[in-house]
Design a protein that fits this description.
alpha/beta, about 350 residues, 7-stranded parallel sheet, about 55% helix, homodimer
């Protein structure tokens, strides 16, 4: 193994910030050497508590994440923040709410902040985020907060990779609650109504509690890991025990109000995961998803290697023009793939 | 080729309803012989006008689809309706709004109705729907209406496979407009506010027009095929010409009001697709997606064949427990796949 790689591994393990940043950039750029480093670092992962934070824009998410980080810092825990913006083409540095973030947290050696954005596909972003979390885990951060904007498939994928998922709302966003209901609410372990001093906060809290109730009464919906249980993924099968019941918290992040209760619940959620055996189940499901995604990637790479782009175009055109059926086309293509 | 298959092919080509139904059931069940038939029928496809109809539950979608079908029948066009319900585990017969549908359309030889539901994965449903559309296309139906409920990824995938996409809203569903905005609105060629005699219809029409305007001003968003253009799919590249501008129509489907204007726009959209060259582009993109999906399926099948489930479980557990890194795991798995 080249000594550059070995050095990088040692420096990341030692928590050297600059090396961590360099390795993340290499991962984002699809650097081959980075894969070697990730492979070596993998045995050092699985120790951090990964917390996903998501919700619509305008809910004060970044401010709340900063306050959570500050609370954790007072408890002497090291914190890494990965801010993921699927709608932004820019990576590196700090992007989401970066001015406030920098003012509050910069200069603290126990905090690491990184922004990530879409390069190519959303699926690729979920993969890259998972690799970055692995790096920060190996670098021995106690808590890794993954912050995402929005409520799409990318957010659900990213949330799934977290141990604890916090979903944020703010008052008067009745419309967005609908959006969240579609896919994010089912993954929430903790719900927060931020800007709780604004008019309509009670209504939002009630609406969220009603949704939780609805979910609870319809069986598995409310149970953590529900998405896996209803998908075709066999490792998502769940026992019938009640499990974790999400609660709704109110915060005023700009004044730091209500944040400690949220942080305390984050901690008790990890205790629940440990004692219930849910943590081991989630690690299994997560490993399975990771392996599946990497297998698909490897297959696509081999296919792209074996089939010339012009050949692919020729075949696609023949299918579009009904000169060739897609079943025969796929057979032709697979014959050329050494695998 | 077995004569059973040959007979089935001839009967489907001849539009024999019972054979069409049998072949669809075989496709849904993953029958191997069905693949042979689909392969043979493929050259007969590409003639029907495929119309996707989607929108939230409660908008009167099924009633509107029935009225569109009746209008097309008056114009002497044969119509097939495929009703897709991703939330239902039942297939076969007619399900979505079936009572009204049966009363209005049954007994007409120029109409074929079929319901499809999730068996296993949502991706599988999109694939099966595409195969069923192919069968009905080969059976020489002039128009194939694919009706889906909801606003998730499955609906977007299914909508993409249509030539013309109609998105339905109804008054006072402000919340659902948000949901639609997330992924469906961008695929809409025609927007319909049904139940237009209800209070709030004007508001809904205005809200949809405002959304279209927003999309138009932000460039490619409003351009048909936008999803492909912003995805990693290279064949979705679009020219800068304005293209098709979606309009918002008002209907009262229960009274048949406003339906003819919608049907007329469906027809003129196909003229646009033909004259602009957009049809050929969409056929190419659709062929590419179909081939990609089938390649992934073939890969998964070979992998499942080569790797015992217990072996897979062992490897996933080793990765979850950090005894094995996922990169090495994937290498091990791929070594066993003869491809």
């Amino acid at each position: 193994m080249p000594s550059l790689v070995n050095t990088l591994i040692e420096q990341v393990r030692g928590g050297r910030r600059r090396s961590i940043g360099q390795l993340i950039t290499r991962v984002e750029n699809g650097d081959v050497a980075a894969k070697e480093v990730l492979r070596e670092l993998y045995r050092d992962t699985g120790r951090a508590h990964v917390v996903g934070v998501t919700g619509p824009p305008g809910t004060g998410k970044s401010t709340l994440v900063n306050e959570i980080a500050k609370t954790l810092r007072r408890q002497k825990k090291s914190v890494a923040i990965v801010a993921v913006d699927p709608s932004s083409p820019f990576s590196g540095g700090a992007l989401l709410g970066d001015r406030i973030r920098m003012r509050d947290l910069s200069g603290d050696e126990g905090v690491f902040i990184r922004s990530m954005a879409t390069r190519g596909s959303l699926g690729g972003l979920a993969r890259a985020t998972s690799d970055v979390v692995g790096i920060l885990d190996a670098a021995a951060f106690d808590v890794i907060i993954v912050e995402t904007v929005g409520a799409g498939q990318a957010e659900v994928d990213i949330a799934r990779a977290a141990h604890t998922v916090i979903v944020i709302e703010s008052p008067g966003m009745g419309d967005e609650i609908q959006t969240i209901k579609a896919g994010i609410l089912e993954t929430a372990d903790i719900l927060v109504v931020n800007k709780a001093d604004r008019p309509g906060a009670d209504r939002t809290v009630k609406a969220l509690r009603a949704m939780l109730q609805m979910g609870a009464s319809s069986g598995p919906l409310r149970h953590h890991g529900q998405i896996m249980a209803t998908s075709a993924n066999p490792d998502g099968a769940e026992s019938a025990q009640p499990g974790w019941i999400p609660s709704v918290y109110e915060t005023i992040a700009t004044e730091g109000k209500g944040v400690e209760a949220v942080v305390e619940t984050v901690r008790s959620h990890m205790s629940y995961l440990n004692s219930s055996g849910e943590l081991a189940k989630r690690e299994l499901a997560q490993s399975r998803r990771k392996i599946d995604a990497m297998l698909q990637e490897a297959f696509t790479a081999r296919l792209n290697n074996a089939v010339e782009p012009t050949e692919m175009e020729r075949i696609v055109a023949a299918v579009a023009e009904r000169r060739l059926d897609p079943y025969s086309a796929v057979e032709q293509l697979l014959n050329g793939v050494p695998m």
